[in-house]
Amino acid sequence: xxxxxxxxxxxxxxxxxxxxxxxxxxxxxxxxxxxxxxxxxxxxxxxxxxxxxxxxxxxxxxxxxxxxxxxxxxxxxxxxxxxxxxxxxxxxxxxxxxxxxxxxxxxxxxxxxxxxxxxxxxxxxxxxxxxxxxxxxxxxxxxxxxxxxxxxxxxxxxxxxxxxxxxxxxxxxxxxxxxxxxxxxxxxxxxxxxxxxxxxxxxxxxxxxxxxxxxxxxxxxxxxxxxxxxxxxxxxxxxxxxxxxxxxxxxxxxxxxxxxxxxxxxxxxxxxxxxxxxxxxxxxxxxxxxxxxxxxxxxxxxxxxxxxxxxxxxxxxxxxxxxxxxxxxxxxxxxxxxxxxxxxxxxxxxxxxxxxxxxxxxxxxxxxxxxx
Length: 372
What we know:
The protein has 15 helices and 16 strands. It is α/β, with parallel strands linked by helices. β15 (279-282) and β16 (285-288) form a beta hairpin. α6 (129-139) packs across α7, α7 runs parallel beside α8 and α11 (270-276) runs antiparallel to α14.
């Protein structure tokens, strides 16, 4: 089979939302989809069995972190990332570009690549687009991402344009260096917060004919309406028959707004990160379970959720676990948050199939309040 095939089964009549299937070497992925993040070849606090219980179809691992520890050659020796972490469903590896550029004072950008110091031990590293492809091909994920330069927010126009141009040149180098036939390589649209640059980037990458496209450099501190507006601007210039992946986005409101604007794939550390700090998603918004108000409550985290956690444990018990620093507390809140998002995406796909996406979105926001 081809390394990546994408079918669009249904398009919403009132928006740019669509339902599809992404066919990958390790299985089919229904879209729109949320991808849990397994930064270090593990989704924090979750076992592979639990990820399958909540119907995780694809997850993400981080090239930068795996390059530093344990190293891509060690993982290659295990037969690749799937065998190393015992996950037989699809995996996407990001390029590590965002992590490298977030190092700020610890890195130097050159046309050839990026020199940076490891956040673990301060050792000097140098990654080029070609070396990034070597690393990701050794990891062996179903989808690899091109090495790109992510502009900060805010960012002046000249700096954003220069970073976008370098991203395009690096994308072409990644294409030439990428040879693994059972792995798809996605390009990444950049351009910071300037509409003309975003459109130019979408057009340029579309001409390179990647099997899929990431949208990078958003959700980095800008107001959400700005992100939504940029998604609307670039959507017409992105190939209609290729998957679109909005990188680093994972709050329920942003998922719905992204789907409405034609996005097929999302990922974010948000659900597991806030879970470990005692915050969970519910149908009525975020709930900070650490708060004393929940100490004696016998009801579940979310009375409208049917996950294992909500069917079994009370708010009072989970609050006790979190306050006591017990590992089980973080495991239960992580399980619930991931289930909440994955179940939400299932409901979105069903609503699209039944031509009622607008009604679903309206009903969701009638109850949901993003700010607890």
